Amino acid sequence: xxxxxxxxxxxxxxxxxxxxxxxxxxxxxxxxxxxxxxxxxxxxxxxxxxxxxxxxxxxxxxxxxxxxxxxxxxxxxxxxxxxxxxxxxxxxxxxxxxxxxxxxxxxxxxxxxxxxxxxxxxxxxxxxxxxxxxxxxxxxxxxxxxxxxxxxxxxxxxxxxxxxxxxxxxxxxxxxxxxxxxxxxxxxxxxxxxxxxxxxxxxxxxxxxxxxxxxxx
Length: 217
Prior knowledge:
It is a single chain. This protein is an all-alpha fold. Helices cover 57% and strands 0% of the residues. The chain has seven helices and no strands. Helix 2 packs parallel to helix 4, helix 3 packs across helix 5 (126-133) and helix 4 crosses helix 5. Residues 192-217 are annotated as: Disordered. Keywords: Signal. Residues 1-26 form the signal peptide.
């Protein structure tokens, strides 16, 4: 069984995937100007990091993957909600284009990246994901809003990203599934290493002569 200590050690590694600002950690006045073209390149690198994370999960057993996904979905949903609030309070409207203020750029980037990562995780690990997400009553609403939010950034995101998002929306029934819908990303995980092995069936013993419970006097 994966100990609480292991989960604690894994958590910072997982969180760094979700929380890196688009312009790094420099102060606002020191940060380079981030244009849509520059962010498009940053986004490609982020997606490579997402793939490595998914690959790591796919190489783990069911129990370990479940616990890491449990941490991941908590952070993904929290980040999307918090940054949506930041954008809403600032008055930013996504249809006006990629923002110029660094704080808003970070919020837009974190929403885009976490929506895409969430889509990857659900497509690759649907059974575990649904088990975890049923504890989060707003998850569908959040991903529905988020995937539609991405439509404002077609000049930044790749066609491959939008294809994944379309499959994601079909997988979780945010849109009607096409008749030929197949989830090409589905990953079957090995069961836990600690799972008890099936016991071999007991051999039936041949029954010999029986004593009747009756004694003749």
